[in-house]
Amino acid sequence: MAGNDRALVMKLRDLINKTAEGLEGTVKIMDFCGTHEHSIVYNGIRSLMPGNVELVAGPGCPVCITPAHYVDAMIKLALDGVRAYTYGDTYLLPGSEPPGSSKPRTLADAKALGADVVVVYSLLEAIKHYKRDPKESVFLAVGFETTAPSTASAVVNKLLPEGFTLINVHRLTPPIMRYTFEKHRNAPIRGVIAPGHVSTIVGARAWEFIPREYGIPTVVAGFEASDVMQAILYILLMLKAGKPKLVNQYRRAVTWEGNVRAQKLLDECCEVVDASWRGLGFVPNSGLAFRERYRWADAIYQYGLKEVSEREWKYDLPPGCRCAEVTLGLAKPTDCPLFLKVCKPGVPYGPCMVSSEGACHIWARFGGGGLVEEVVASLGLE
Question: How far apart are CA 85 and CA 260, in angstroms?
Fold first, then answer.
């Protein structure tokens, strides 16, 4: 944290402590985005909060919620001789095979068995690699609205070479936030820090329903420590005034309307469908599926693979894993008995320990959400 930012953060801390006085009960504020959780933990922001303010992580990790079904599909194709392109985070993402299985559980396992698995930073990098070394290939396209436009652009503009298809696992964020409130109406979330990256695409307006329908103060925020602290202060001020609304703190990057061109690309390429989320089941209107005219890009369709349905969906977390509760802000990573025991960043047991945006991974790397006592408790050293 730079000196000027540190001074601002300390001033904001004092204002937060003063504003929190007199607020009844515990004020739980959900930071939706994995990058916000990283900033909170890395900068020790939880340690700066007054006793009645609690920050909880939300469902803002696209790798964590990628259903095991699609990992299984990628593993099958890779073992059948198709080249599998994947992001580094999804390389270690477990499928539905249980830990200790003799069958491959991850794409890394498939590669160890001789499958052609290539880790890339982007879809365009995968396409460039394919052009240098052509081979029947599939790319695992995961992510929220931030990365979905790059997939849509490649499909609509016909940038995919012949023999190169995609497994589309893009998910939409406002529907999962609505689902969180509807599914857990008694969850005491009293403020939301909305995702900055996603909001550059969907616009700040995408989050207006939260204060309007649920009476919860919401702030679209940037990712510096001072951005997060400002968001917390705004939420507390709204609670104190009894006037929940939507505030766009991240005006340097986010507009009210968002990236209209990207939105049009997504609408041209995909239709909104009910979609599965790992550990959570099917969430209404939360997925993107290729429109019929772009089915040529759809690996599930082209290879005749079975698509998961709501009726057939099965709970796809390994035994004992509490990633679903962590994803919904109902539990902390340290509440899971597997945390830093069976489940570690180098050998993830559950999906929230895989990605750099996963709450469990972040807490494991930087220490109990930024609170020393959480680390001590998780290691059984109390």
Answer: 29
Contact 88, 119 (CB under 8 A): yes
Integer CA distances (angstroms), 145 to 51, 195, 267, 326, in order: 35, 11, 12, 22
pTM value? 0.92
pLDDT by residue (tens digit) across 118-154? 999 999 999 999 999 999 999 999 999 999 999 999 9
Q: Is residue 342 within 8 Å of 350, Cβ to Cβ?
A: no
How far lies 182's CA from each of 57, 177, 189, 198, 259, in Å? 17, 9, 12, 21, 28
With tokens 């599914």, the residue in question is 183
Using the predicted structure, report yes or no on whether residue 167 has a pLDDT greater than 70.
yes
Q: Helix or strand or coil: residue 264?
A: helix
Buried b (16+ CB within 10 A) or exposed e, 160-198: beeebbbbbbbbbbbbbbbbbbeeeeeeebbbbbbbbbb
Q: Compute the Cα dihedral for 281, 284, 285, 289 and give only its sign.
A: positive
Instruction: Report the b/e string of 249-276 with b at 16+ CB within 10 A.
Output: bbeeebeeebbeebbebbeebbeeeebb
CA distances from residue 157 to 58, 202, 263 in whole angstroms, order as listed = 34, 21, 15
Give, as one character, the DSSP assignment of residue 349. Answer: S
In tens, the pLDDT along 206-262 reads: 999 999 999 999 999 999 999 999 999 999 999 999 999 999 999 999 999 999 999
83-86 and 117-119 beta bridge pairing = parallel
Give rounded-to-5 percent helix, strand, coil for the chain. Answer: 45, 20, 40
Who contacts 41 (Cβ-Cβ below 8 Å, separation ≥6)? 362, 363, 366, 367, 369, 370
276-293: average pLDDT: 95
Question: What does the alpha-carbon distance between residue 77 and residue 185 come to, in Å, rounded to a whole number?
Answer: 41
As a whole number of angstroms, the distance between CA 177 and CA 167 comes to 24
DSSP assignment of 23-36: --S-EEEEEEEHHH
* Domains contained in the chain, CATH given: 3-58+182-248 (3.40.50.11750), 68-172+258-302 (3.40.50.11740), 323-378 (no CATH)
Task: Give the residue among 114, 123, 56 at the shortest CA–CA distance from 90.
Answer: 123
Amino acid at 36: H
Torsion of CA 57, 61, 64, 70, to 10 degrees: 150
Secondary structure class of 338 (helix, strand, coil): coil
